[in-house]
Amino acid sequence: MTITRLGRTLTYVLVAAIALAIAVPVAWVLLASFKAKGEFYGSPWTLPAGLRIQNYVDAFVTAHMGQYFLTSVLVTVLGLVFVLAVSIPAAYVIARYEFRGRGLVEVLLLAGLFVNVNYIVVPIFLMLVGWDRSLADVLPGGFFIDNPAVLSLVYAATSIPFSIYLLTAYFRSIPVDYEEAASLDGASRFLVMTRIMLPMARPAVTTVILFNFLAYWNDFIIALTLLPGDGKTLQVGLLNLMTAQKAAADYGRLYAGMVIVIVPVLILYALIQRRLIEGMAAGGVKG
């Protein structure tokens, strides 16, 4: 009993230490985003003299973080739409139907899990540049490079293996009795997938949305490579802001930009936390 209690206490201490290691820097950045320029020359742990909202106004307007924010939202939402539109039907077919080559398809999808997209970003860039050159007579300004929609397609294509793998495992854990009952009532395969299976797989879909949202929202290398123009994403824009504000020693605007990047992730996690836990913990559905 004593050993069990000691282990539980150590677990609580470890969890508390990890939580503090995450919460303290986030809280520090939030407080620093409200400080005036002169307040950074004293102790870094002093509270701001007031809520300097002008830092956020400058970050949004002057540093164009508002424009970059909209680009990131557009790219992330389009990427999620693309990946869900492909992954959900594909995962359902792989989980429920026998067809020639299914084993090969599953092996290829598993192989895709081990491909780090950051290692193939240069071939992707060269391929898109080649396509733009082939369309130079029709589209002189190019189409595939510096196009947020194309960036969304690249995000979706590179995250399809993980999404299908996770959804396939969840679909297989759902008993076929539900589908058989719906088929007896005259439901088509499409209706069975959308009206029966998809609502039951909502925890897994939520998990896919969160993991892919984090990957798309926090990406830097692919966005920097495929969007070289003014339509930058938030992560690339934050780097430009960091460089400019370090030179100007205006750190309040810099930390305001960091908060703009962090807040959407925290809001999304707070909204889908319960379903995310269900998706990670559920191992099957009892009939």
- CA-to-CA gap between the ends? 37 Å
- What low-confidence regions span 5 or more consecutive residues with pLDDT below 50? 283-287
- How many alpha or pi helices? 12
Tell me the total number of β-strands: 0
- CATH homologous superfamily descriptor: MetI-like
What is the residue-averaged pLDDT? Answer: 86
Strand content: under 5%
- Secondary structure: helix percent: over 70%
CATH class: Mainly Alpha
Structural class of the helix and strand makeup? mainly alpha
Major sheet details:
none
Number of domains: 1
For this structure, the CATH topology is MetI-like fold
Can you describe this structure?
- The protein has 287 residues and is mainly alpha-helical.
- Residues 283-287 have low confidence and may be disordered.
- The radius of gyration is 24 Å and the shape is globular.
- The protein contains 12 helices and no strands.
- It has one domain: MetI-like fold, CATH 1.10.3720.
- Helix 3 packs parallel to helix 6.
